[in-house]
Design brief:
Blueprint lengths: L3 H20 L5 H26 L1 H6 L1 H22 L5 H8 L2 H12 L6 H18 L14 H23 L5 H22 L10 H26 L1 H6 L4 H12 L6 H19 L18
């Protein structure tokens, strides 16, 4: 039963990738980003505001940290994904999004002073080779003649943004309950998204895009994180994180079934290499350098 919590959360996030793709033709990226987090902010208000008030002093002391986390996790990550959806397939978005665990580990080397391991080295190289194979559609030499597409760059920037969000969350360890911290981050996210929303050419809600906003604002922003947190509490963080590796597979299946996207050989090869690299980086913990043996003084000397 406990396994269902992260599994359903991952399924919801996979469907949200499809929602992001569908939104490309029905609503401005700035509009869905703003509406999504505004909806989450309003729905969570009765549950989170009392706790936010009780922890107002801790919030005030960490205001700029919460602002940066809101920028990385709520603004850049999703906004860049919505813009990328205009030129990148849902399958590609799912695979590029699956690099978040690897990017998190790589950023941890510098931000958290994480010791490098063989898994990080081998997995990083394998994932990089997989991404090159993927974005070049199985012809790496063509990347020498043309630059990486804007959509792919946006998705990689989005993944990097969310990876940095996770690393900074761990580094700062803000002394707030999870939902109060998230609520303040969402509040800052809405504020930061407002200028883009006001400048968007069309922010009209209609029968086509309202369901997309509702899914993104309720299921992807509230229900999935709630289930994920339950999974972490019941299974532990390391076990729960493994479920993120299902995202590209779930996304690809849904994209083929409902968006009629085509899976090509380069998707299987590049995506497989990337996913194996991520798993190796997560699971192979052998350090690159053996710790120096310390010689203890002889007490009889």
């Amino acid at each position: 039963m406990n396994l269902l919590f992260p599994l359903i959360a991952v399924m919801i996030w996979s469907i949200n990738t499809i929602v992001s793709k569908l939104s490309a033709g029905s609503i401005d990226p700035a509009a869905i980003s703003f509406y999504r987090w505004l909806l989450a902010l309003l729905v969570l208000a009765p549950f989170c505001l009392p706790g936010v008030w009780r922890h107002r002093h801790a919030i005030k002391a960490n205001l700029w940290r919460l602002l940066i986390l809101g920028l990385l996790g709520m603004v850049l990550y999703q906004s860049l994904a919505y813009y990328a959806a205009h030129s990148v397939s849902a399958v590609m978005m799912g695979i590029l999004g699956a690099t978040i665990p690897l990017l998190t580990i790589l950023l941890s080397l510098f931000v958290l002073r994480l010791a490098p391991t063989r898994g990080i080295l081998i997995g990083g190289l394998l994932s990089f080779a997989g991404l090159v194979w993927l974005v070049s559609e199985g012809n790496p030499t063509q990347l020498l003649n043309q630059r990486l597409g804007n959509g792919e760059l946006m998705m990689l920037a989005a993944s990097t943004s969310y990876a940095l969000y996770g690393v900074l969350t761990k580094r700062w360890a803000i002394p707030l309950p999870t939902w109060q911290s998230l609520y303040v981050q969402i509040f800052f996210g809405v504020l930061l998204l407002l200028p883009g929303f006001l400048r968007a050419p069309d922010v009209t809600l209609n029968l086509l895009n309202i369901p997309l906003v509702l899914f993104a604002g309720l299921f992807a922003s509230i229900i999935a994180p709630f289930l994920w947190i339950l999974g972490v509490q019941r299974l532990g963080a390391s076990t729960t994180t493994i479920f993120m590796n299902f995202v590209p597979a779930f996304t690809a299946i849904i994209a083929v079934l409902f968006l009629h996207e085509q899976l090509h050989a380069y998707h299987w090869i590049g995506g497989g290499m990337t996913l194996v690299g991520v798993i190796l980086a997560q699971r192979l913990k052998t350090p690159l350098r053996k710790p120096r043996a310390t010689t203890l003084p002889d007490p009889a000397a």
